[in-house]
Amino acid sequence: MTSDLISFARGAPSLDIVDIDGLKAAADAALTTDPGGATGYGTAIGYPPLRKFLAEKHGVAEEQVLVTNGSMQADAFLFDELVEPGRAVVVERPTYDRTLLGLRQRGADVRAVTLDTDGIDTEELAALLESGVRPTFAHVIPNFQNPAGYTLSAAKRARLVELAEAHDFIVFEDDPYVQIRFAGEPLPTMLELDGGRGRVVYASSFSKTVAPGVRVGYLVGPADLIARIRVRATNTYISPNMLAQAIVYRFCVDGGLERSVATVNAALRERADVLCDALAKHIPDARFTKPDGGYFMWVELPDGVNVGELLTAAEQRGVTFVKGTDFLLDGGESTLRMAYSGVRTDQIEEGVARIADALGSLRVSAG
């Protein structure tokens, strides 16, 4: 492997687009204005001012919000509360690999429903429900989905909420990328469309907009569900990282979040453009849909390409990505996820060219 590894594998912003100065100022403000709250244990609800800020942002009561150590912790608490061994849970096909892992570890009967370029196939889901399957919840990443980069359409959002009401299940709206939009118009959340009926649990994160290292995420849901999860949180860690949450709060209210989102979105728009152009140039038979935001793009290579062999050959040439098979229960042998968030613009074409060279070597070997 060459020493200058180009990585399309990690869904994280590169350091050059993280607002370090803004975070320094936010940390100083947090420790100056509320040293006790920022450095104390606190409670499992999270840092109270941030919880209130999020409740106001989503138009819900504070009792409906729980702030956690990253959205993956929020996911884990929700899964622990809702997953019943042997009972169905719906996911998108493909979906985030950690979601699959968490659900399978808890014994869920995972039912994967096709993901189209405009989101989960709601009519396939409707047919599954009509067949008698009764899921506890459907896990959906509505904006710039991980791993595919696709966005759930407005019509499908409304249809999902309708199906949840008709068939008595919860929509788990996992939405960490919602603010990373660089094309098109924002769409209403399913939490908003639900109108307080309690059919939607919403999760998001500041890892993608502030910095991954802050590890601040949150859940919004029915007050009784959040109260039960709060007990789990108390028994897990007494309280989450109050200092990080206090810094994030000051970053938000002092204008840092708006500046950070603008910086990240401008950079990722450029990176997505360069990636699409490089794929079209170097791997013209690759199929992909240019994303309107987020960190990721799903790439389909011609049938017969073994993505495991391709990854090995690519890493020998100093470039890496994540195999599409990691995000699926089965299939996907010719697919891959490319994250453009953590790679500089000047590295992208070189990285794609290395993948193309690796692909060419496999084709030569196949003869």
Short overview:
The chain has 367 residues and is of the alpha/beta class. It is built from 13 helices and 14 strands.
Describe this structure in words.
With 367 residues, the chain is of the alpha/beta class. It has two domains: 6-17 and 258-366, Aspartate Aminotransferase, domain 1 (Alpha-Beta Complex); 21-256, Aspartate Aminotransferase, domain 2 (3-Layer(aba) Sandwich). It is 45% helix and 16% strand. The chain is built from 13 helices and 14 strands. The strands form four sheets. A five-stranded mixed sheet has the order 2-9-8-7-6, with helices on both faces. Strands 10-11-14-13 form a four-stranded antiparallel sheet, covered by helices on one side. It has a three-stranded mixed sheet with strand order 3-4-5. Strand 7 (170-174), helix 8 (190-194) and strand 8 (200-205) form a beta-alpha-beta unit. The longest helix has 27 residues, at 256-282. It is globular and about 65 Å long. The chain starts with 5 loop residues before the first strand and ends with a helix. The mean pLDDT is 96.
